[in-house]
Structures are given as C-alpha cells and as structure tokens.
Amino acid sequence: MVLSTGEYSISNLDEESFRRQDQPSFHVFAEGMHSDARGQIYNLPPDACLSLPHEKQPSHLFIVLVVRGELAALVRGEALHLRPLSQLVILPGVPCTLSATSTVTLELISFMSVPPRPGS
Asked: Which domains does the chain have, with CATH numbers?
C-alpha cells in the first residue's frame, strides 16, 4: 500500500514490492515528477549488480534500505554485508556497488545534500 497526500507519504514496502515484483524498479514517492528527493524500489535477482550514480549525482546522499533478501555492498573497496532491515548511508561522491547475494528488494533513497553555509 502506498498512500500519499500533499503533507505525507506512507508505504508498506514489503507488501508493495511483493505486489510489484514483476517490475525491476519503481518509485514509491516522487513518482512521475521531478524531485531532488527520490525513493526507488529495486527487485534484483541473485548476482545482479547496481552501481550508485555517484559521478552523475555528486551532491546526492544515498540511503540503501534492504526490505527482503541479502546483498553485498562495496564502498571504496570495503565489502559490507546487508540483510533485511539493514540501512547503509553513502555520502555524496562516494562510489558504491550493490550486489544481490539472493533475490533482494531494496529501497534506494537519494536527495541533494547541501553543505552548511560559512559562518553557520
């Protein structure tokens, strides 16, 4: 279930990803509109890889949330294991590749990160 209003959005990610498992990816908010904040669900088969677009979006912060399954993350050469309900935060400009070690559903949230103003 996804319910959005002008003031909030609520999603049952496990139910929604299962319902839309035939889709390799879909948005759960900002679908069909431009936004600096994006929430995209990926349904990946085993051995599939996803590289975060750190070069294309060098000012974006990325948050990876594992909904179902498991995956390996390679962050600047460091290997990390993520299981269901794990969260990984990748700072702007940092390369990261995600590799499914099983059938996995993950949410990738990204948004523009603006550095603090001098003197703040």
From this structure: 2-112 (2.60.120.10)
